[in-house]
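Pasting two entries for a bug report.
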Amino acid sequence: MLVQYLDPDGMIENTPYHHVAVGTGTRFVHVAGQVAHMPAGEPVPTDLASQVSQALRNVHRGLVAAGAQFSDVVRLTVYVTEWETSQMGEFMAGVEAVAPEIGLQLPMPPASLIAVVQLFEPGVLVEIEATALL
């Protein structure tokens, strides 16, 4: 096992992610921030859940191209525009909708969700980066 996930006692319980990842590989894979661009150029979905799902699909594409899977991921960083804590249900609905398809185990690898004013393109609500170890 290249990546071991831990949730030490005393850290917040019942989070949708693990608190710690310990990797023992020799190659790092960094997937640049991925947004909900569609593979055939269709319009970007307008709702948060759909954008989360598609951004994760695009992260998965990058991982696979490098010979990795979500089980190799040691860190996710998520940037969300116009974030409010009331959106966590919609955010997690997007994660859960795509998780089986892309092999993303829940809870997710260690992750940060960072609220930002805007991303590089109008209408983009979420951008997701991944770091994996092979």
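Entry 2 (this is the one that rendered wrong in the viewer):
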Amino acid sequence: MDQLNEIKELKNRIAVLEMEIKKTSVPIISSIVDDTILVPIVGYTGTERFELIRNQVLEYIGSHSNITAVIFDFTGSDLNGNNEHDYNTIAFDLKVLNDTLKLMDVRPISVGFNPNIVRRVIASGTHIEFESYINFRMALKVLLKENGDSTHD
């Protein structure tokens, strides 16, 4: 095989592996609450990542039409690594993510924001209406209570 073909095959292989890495970077986990999934957001979170998250979750919901709520856990995300200008984009990306799920009649719930992120996103001026809790445990408690399950108090 000549070098050009070998390079082309290697580039194709890299593209396939990059796609696999992207897909596995958005884990979707079943919850103890019926019809609810958890999506932990870990590492860098920019517009491209939000788009990937949105697409993966929509694809999952498309094949699991019983899903009524998605909990996004931002505890492990790196939103602090962004400069001031990027908080406008982050606020917009959060809004698009939530609005997309609402159009699918799925309840978006966010958990794990730290006070610095909250201040900066609110200061960005983007109007966001979404349900948020301090952590995953609190969100589960609310959902369990709404579903009439008091065994996990």
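Dev reply: Rendering is fixed now. As a check, the viewer should reflect this: Residues 3-24 form the longest helix (22 residues).
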